[in-house]
């Protein structure tokens, strides 16, 4: 049935079919966007944790390097004292 003016009240079947396909595609895209958002959140959290861990490891490395340097100085000092004791005898 066509009203005056020539526009049909009922959508053609192919339009309805395309609309259902578009709706399905939209749902699939929404699902993908949600998955990407979750992945982004997870990666952001992991990145934050790795940066914190890196800071801790750099601090620990600095402490261990300093301790190694102090040990080296003490050993050199002991060697020098032993050499001077040896020369005194």
TrEMBL record:
GO terms for biological process: cell division. InterPro entries: CHP02449 (IPR012662). Residues 19-60 form a coiled coil. Keywords: Cell cycle, Cell division, Coiled coil. It comes from the Bacteria. NCBIfam families: TIGR02449 family protein. This is Cell division protein ZapB. It comes from Ectothiorhodospira marina.
């Amino acid at each position: 049935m066509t009203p005056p003016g020539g526009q049909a009240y009922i959508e053609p079947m192919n339009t309805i079919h395309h609309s259902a396909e578009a709706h399905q595609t939209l749902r699939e895209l929404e699902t993908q966007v949600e998955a990407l958002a979750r992945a982004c959140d997870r990666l952001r959290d992991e990145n934050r944790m790795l940066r914190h861990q890196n800071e801790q490891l750099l601090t620990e490395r600095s402490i261990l390097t300093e301790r190694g340097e102090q040990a080296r100085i003490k050993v050199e000092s002991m060697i020098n004292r032993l050499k001077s004791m040896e020369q005194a005898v």
